[in-house]
């Protein structure tokens, strides 16, 4: 079962730029719960439904985006676009993932004083945000699952628990923990085939 | 405040932070405390607006830009938000060629698993804010169950949760 889920397909057909922009406009803008929810949705759309990238390419984008300053989600979308169709794909993905939600935020900012006390709007937001907690938990599982394979479960558990201990117990910033894990990963002995 | 000036201030904040709201202290320091072009109340409103709309949490800089300079400020905020994202391209260009190298695979595995653990940790403060009674706990639990055992799109689950919450609110009011 080891790494069976990480499948490579080297001869994929590149999606058209409009398809990339369309996908990110639809799925990267209208999900509550921040980037985690969006990653979960995009995983399903890009790998399971459209087969644009392999699991390992998706993982590469996700991991590198976590190490880049700014909004990780936008770096992640840009990376996916680049992997799918190089420069044009990156631009389409970045615009598709950021313009619609930025416009929505702009309109909401303009109208904020009108709806900030509306009980219906507030109730809808409460419901959506409650569900976002569930989305965050599920996303943690979705991104970790391909790596939880026989032979490396102990190491995976150590890294996960170690990260939580450093974050909760010692208040170490997330980026420092991620960079430390990157260094540990690079220095680990390489398993022989 | 000029467009370029605002862009540079916001970019400094976004490019030196690694999470959605992590840039907030830098923006507060530059725009509220030093330049006095934004109030604390507006900064809070910007955060509330972004939390109340779908999409990345970091989008609050668009709202901040609008409060400072209107629509052109919002554009400066959007540019400051997207600029750091392009840094992933040279990294992918380099790492993509070595995707199958065992050391890179190990590195990616460690970062992804650590990210998953940190995401799990992030659910707790979110839950503290969002789960305020039995009904919101029930919404989160049912949502989680549906996500794991069905193939229903997350969008529909979130929408259903919002509609149920509105229904409950109307019932409670009547």
UniProtKB/TrEMBL annotation, chain A:
<dbReference type="InterPro" id="IPR052518">
    <property type="entry name" value="CHR_Transporter"/>
</dbReference>
<dbReference type="Pfam" id="PF02417">
    <property type="entry name" value="Chromate_transp"/>
</dbReference>
<feature type="transmembrane region" description="Helical">
    <location>
        <begin position="63"/>
        <end position="84"/>
    </location>
</feature>
<feature type="transmembrane region" description="Helical">
    <location>
        <begin position="91"/>
        <end position="114"/>
    </location>
</feature>
<protein>
    <submittedName>
        <fullName>Chromate transporter</fullName>
    </submittedName>
</protein>
<dbReference type="GO" id="GO:0005886">
    <property type="term" value="C:plasma membrane"/>
</dbReference>
<feature type="transmembrane region" description="Helical">
    <location>
        <begin position="151"/>
        <end position="168"/>
    </location>
</feature>
<dbReference type="InterPro" id="IPR003370">
    <property type="entry name" value="Chromate_transpt"/>
</dbReference>
<feature type="transmembrane region" description="Helical">
    <location>
        <begin position="174"/>
        <end position="191"/>
    </location>
</feature>
<keyword id="KW-0812">Transmembrane</keyword>
<keyword id="KW-1003">Cell membrane</keyword>
<dbReference type="GO" id="GO:0015109">
    <property type="term" value="F:chromate transmembrane transporter activity"/>
</dbReference>
<keyword id="KW-0472">Membrane</keyword>
<comment type="similarity">
    <text>Belongs to the chromate ion transporter (CHR) (TC 2.A.51) family.</text>
</comment>
<keyword id="KW-1133">Transmembrane helix</keyword>
<feature type="transmembrane region" description="Helical">
    <location>
        <begin position="120"/>
        <end position="144"/>
    </location>
</feature>
Automatic annotation (TrEMBL), chain B:
<dbReference type="InterPro" id="IPR003370">
    <property type="entry name" value="Chromate_transpt"/>
</dbReference>
<dbReference type="Pfam" id="PF02417">
    <property type="entry name" value="Chromate_transp"/>
</dbReference>
<comment type="similarity">
    <text>Belongs to the chromate ion transporter (CHR) (TC 2.A.51) family.</text>
</comment>
<keyword id="KW-1003">Cell membrane</keyword>
<dbReference type="InterPro" id="IPR052518">
    <property type="entry name" value="CHR_Transporter"/>
</dbReference>
<feature type="transmembrane region" description="Helical">
    <location>
        <begin position="6"/>
        <end position="27"/>
    </location>
</feature>
<keyword id="KW-1133">Transmembrane helix</keyword>
<feature type="transmembrane region" description="Helical">
    <location>
        <begin position="107"/>
        <end position="125"/>
    </location>
</feature>
<feature type="transmembrane region" description="Helical">
    <location>
        <begin position="131"/>
        <end position="149"/>
    </location>
</feature>
<feature type="transmembrane region" description="Helical">
    <location>
        <begin position="75"/>
        <end position="95"/>
    </location>
</feature>
<dbReference type="GO" id="GO:0015109">
    <property type="term" value="F:chromate transmembrane transporter activity"/>
</dbReference>
<protein>
    <submittedName>
        <fullName>Chromate transporter</fullName>
    </submittedName>
</protein>
<dbReference type="GO" id="GO:0005886">
    <property type="term" value="C:plasma membrane"/>
</dbReference>
<feature type="transmembrane region" description="Helical">
    <location>
        <begin position="154"/>
        <end position="173"/>
    </location>
</feature>
<keyword id="KW-0472">Membrane</keyword>
<keyword id="KW-0812">Transmembrane</keyword>
<feature type="transmembrane region" description="Helical">
    <location>
        <begin position="48"/>
        <end position="69"/>
    </location>
</feature>
């Amino acid at each position: 079962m080891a790494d069976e889920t990480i499948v490579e397909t080297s001869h994929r057909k590149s999606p058209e730029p409009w398809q990339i922009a369309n996908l990110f406009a639809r799925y990267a803008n209208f999900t509550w719960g921040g980037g985690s929810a969006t990653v979960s949705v995009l995983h399903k759309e890009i790998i399971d439904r459209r087969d644009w990238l392999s699991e390992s390419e998706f993982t590469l984008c996700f991991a590198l985006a976590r190490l880049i300053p700014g909004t990780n989600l936008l770096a992640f979308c840009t990376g996916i676009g680049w992997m799918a169709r190089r420069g044009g794909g990156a631009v389409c993905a970045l615009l598709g993932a950021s313009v619609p939600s930025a416009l929505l935020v702009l309109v909401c900012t303009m109208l904020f004083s009108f709806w900030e006390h509306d009980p219906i709007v507030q109730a809808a937001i409460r419901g959506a945000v409650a569900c976002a907690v569930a989305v965050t938990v599920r996303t943690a599982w979705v991104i970790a699952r391909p790596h939880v394979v026989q032979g490396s479960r102990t190491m995976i558990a150590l890294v996960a628990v170690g990260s939580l201990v450093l974050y909760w117990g010692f208040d170490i910033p997330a980026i420092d923990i991620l960079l430390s894990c990157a260094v540990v990963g690079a220095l680990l002995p390489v398993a022989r085939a | 405040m000029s467009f370029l000036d605002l862009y540079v201030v916001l970019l400094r904040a976004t490019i030196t932070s690694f999470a959605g709201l992590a840039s907030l202290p830098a923006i507060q320091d530059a725009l509220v405390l030093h330049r006095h072009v934004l109030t604390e109340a507006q900064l809070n409103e910007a955060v509330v607006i972004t939390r109340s709309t779908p999409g990345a949490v970091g989008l609050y800089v668009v709202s901040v830009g609008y409060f400072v300079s209107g629509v052109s400020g919002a554009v400066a905020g959007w540019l400051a938000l997207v600029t750091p994202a392009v840094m992933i391209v040279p990294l992918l260009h380099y790492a993509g060629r070595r995707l199958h190298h065992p050391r890179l695979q190990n590195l990616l595995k460690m970062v992804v698993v650590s990210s998953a653990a940190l995401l799990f940790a992030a659910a707790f403060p979110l839950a503290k804010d969002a789960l305020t009674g039995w009904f919101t706990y029930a919404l989160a639990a049912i949502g989680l169950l549906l996500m794991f055992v069905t193939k229903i799109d997350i969008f529909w689950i979130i929408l259903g949760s919002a509609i149920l919450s509105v229904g409950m609110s109307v019932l409670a009011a009547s």
